[in-house]
Amino acid sequence: AQTSRGPSSRVTGLSPRVSRRKIVKCEAKKVALLGAGGGIGQPLSLLLKMNKLVTELSLYDIAGVTGVGADISHCNTPVKVSAFNGPEELEGALKGAELIIIPAGVPRKPGMTRDDLFNVNAGIVKALVEAASKHCPEAIIQLVTNPVNSTVPIAAEVMKKAGTHNPAKIMGVSTLDVVRANTFVAEAKKLDVKDVDVPVVGGHAGATILPLLSQATPPVSFTDAEKKMMTEKIQNAGTVVVEAKAGKGSATLSMAYAAARMAESTLMGLNGEPNIYECSYVQSDVVPDCPFFASKLLLGPGGVAKVLPLGNMDAFEQACFHAMLPELKASTQKGIDFANA
Ligand code: NAI
């Protein structure tokens, strides 16, 4: 079975075993973070500054990034940090980047859906991806900005228009759904969280978030009622954070953690490490008539090396799968229409 690598097997992070991990090959890797001054951007900057696979870190924002750059740069790790402020400095941030992570844009407030962010965030993503397509067309782009179900199709359309489209290099960051699923399942089943891996497929909004509990590692069993409760808990976890923050934004710390994990896996793939798997929302033909779908991926030197088939779903998962497809397809189309308007 292909098991995603949990925190304990990682280069940075959290376990003492990690720092002694042998790295297959470590080439210079420049990462650009667009939206680095924000709630996600700041802790993600710190986690990237601590990552041994990153050599250079470009922090870009339209506000507040100079201070974040000065602050982070004092951490005594080898990563070279530069801050870039405003559109006229965007080119400098992007030049030579191999991985671009985009959490630029507004977050939810209580009562909002991710789709409510579309009007503001779609334009931000479009402009940033246009610049990336111009200044570093070979880079991998990872979109954190919501609604991910629509911002990834926007990015793909922008790159198609520019003649730089490579579906293996555009990913929607849905890692937080996996991180949450692993945490909640470990808690419910009293397992060591570092051993738990739950694939989460579909999309990254409400009902489109489909945890495949039947494919969890190690295998876990739930009654039908528990399965429904656990699925809804994973789907609603973002909203729980939005409500708990009561108007002060959405998940930032757990999101930064999740994006750092996705970035690290991606850099490991770029470095030629074998068997690096993550779930991500990408273009694929895994589901007929659904051009974008979050699936389990094999990461490699060119980004997405392989999108894995969905595998067997139990009756509950199949029902959820069929029920959410119309919403997912509509969000995809909304992004495509916006990019082509
Ligand atoms: P925030 O408002 O704290 O930070 C956003 C940052 O983006 C700000 O520093 C802002 O100046 C910057 N920004 C705005 N327009 C920009 C532009 N044109 N170019 C560069 N930077 C720009 O928001 P937060 O909490 O960091 O969230 C960011 C995004 O991430 C939101 O869209 C949110 O919905 C999304 N998100 C995604 C999750 C996921 O699982 N994929 C989870 C949580 C949040």
UniProtKB/TrEMBL annotation:
It catalyses: (S)-malate + NAD(+) = oxaloacetate + NADH + H(+). NAD(+) binds at G35, A36, G37, G38, G39, I40, G41, D61, N121, V144, T145, N146, M255. The active site is at H204 (proton acceptor). Residues 1-12 have a biased composition (Polar residues). Keywords: NAD, Oxidoreductase, Tricarboxylic acid cycle. InterPro entries: L-lactate/malate_DH, Lactate/malate_DH_C, Lactate/malate_DH_N, Lactate_DH/Glyco_Ohase_4_C, Malate_DH_type1, NAD(P)-bd_dom_sf. Substrate binds at R108, R114, N146, R180. Its EC number is 1.1.1.37. GO terms for molecular function: L-malate dehydrogenase (NAD+) activity. Transmembrane segments: none annotated. Residues 30-172 form the Lactate/malate dehydrogenase N-terminal domain. One of its GO terms (biological process) is tricarboxylic acid cycle. Gene3D superfamilies: Lactate dehydrogenase/glycoside hydrolase, family 4, C-terminal (3.90.110.10), NAD(P)-binding Rossmann-like Domain (3.40.50.720). Residues 1-16 are annotated as: Disordered. GO terms for cellular component: mitochondrion. Residues 175-338 form the Lactate/malate dehydrogenase C-terminal domain. Homodimer. Belongs to the LDH/MDH superfamily. MDH type 1 family. This is malate dehydrogenase. It comes from Dunaliella salina.
